Amino acid sequence: MLGKGRYYLNFTNGITRTIYLLANGVKQFPVLCERHSAELLVQLAGSSRRQPLLLSALKDQLESTRPY
Fold first, then answer.
1. pTM to 2 decimals?
2. 16 by DSSP, 3-state: which?
3. Which range marks the domain in which residue 50 is found?
């Protein structure tokens, strides 16, 4: 957080990919960050229907849908 109610988003990887996705109308995409930051990001810029998803839960979902 920067001062009174000013927030910023810092990239360490994926800047070009993000610009490409946004330029092509993507409505949502995954972001890897600490849980507190994820909650704040959802609050400030996310959908009211979404909550942060732990990476471990996402891996479990992926493994449960694999056909083998």
1. 0.58
2. helix
3. 28-65
Contacts of 40 (CB under 8 A, 6+ apart): 7
* Ordered per-residue pLDDT tens for the chain, 68 residues: 445 778 887 888 888 998 999 999 998 888 888 888 888 888 888 777 778 888 888 888 888 887 76
By 3-state DSSP, what share of the chain in percent is helix, strand and coil, each rounded to 5? 45, 5, 50
Sequence-distant (6+) residues with CB within 8 A of 42 are: 50, 51, 52
User: How many domains in the chain?
Assistant: 1
Give CA separation, 41 vs 26, 33, 47, 62, in Å. Answer: 17, 10, 10, 23
- Return the structure tokens found at 17: 């990919």
Structure tokens at 3: 């001062």
